[in-house]
Design a protein that fits this description.
mainly alpha
Length: 263
Amino acid sequence: MTEAFGRLLDVLQRLRKECPWDRKQTNESLRPNTIEEVYELCDALLRDDSHDICKELGDVLMHVCFYALIGQEKGDFDIADVCNKQADKLIFRHPHVYGEQKAETAEQVLQNWEQIKLKEKDGNKTVLSGVPASLPSVIKAYRIQDKARNVGFDWEDRADVWKKVREELGELEAELEKGDKQRSTEELGDFIFSVINAARLYHLNPDNALEQTNKKFIRRFNYVEQHSIRQGKPLTDMTLEEMDKLWEEAKDLERGGGQNTSI
């Protein structure tokens, strides 16, 4: 394992010196590529594709090493500092393993997690300060709610959340009836936030759920479009009823394959 990691670092250092593209990269120029690589890893994880997961993990690891190499060139830190800092953090945050604290369940570990992070020298100063501002909104909402839960700010009975969901939906509908776009936007955000909260309470991942629905819609809409092409009739010339018929055909085919057909 150590030999393989050293080989990767050696290759990257040589590329940094001899490859014109690698030589010109900066933290800023690499950032968009890093985001893309992480999303590609996420896609592979959702597919549970072991081959692609391994490949995409390599791409993400390369970016981690690249940023560390840039840090080394600046004299700020190197990959050893990155590894040691992470190891120190993990040890500090797991006193039930490396210390005397007791935690018998994953739930107990999570309850202690936020308090431990607040005690770190260069850690988060508030419970929610650790949520990155650039996170996608659905994931950010889930993380905000989860962090609040870790310090006891949560529903005592998860079934009560549905009253809140219905309340927020009613407020959204009322503002839509009034035609106030700004207030409607605010209420839409509140409604989505409450639905994400309900998903969290029932141990469902709303981002994964929405992505599954995105893929399902794409799959079914592609079926509609492909069949419109075969009929020699562009989608823009089809009636809604004609498109709905093809949509139902796509759903029927999925039923035969045992796929989810809730839409």
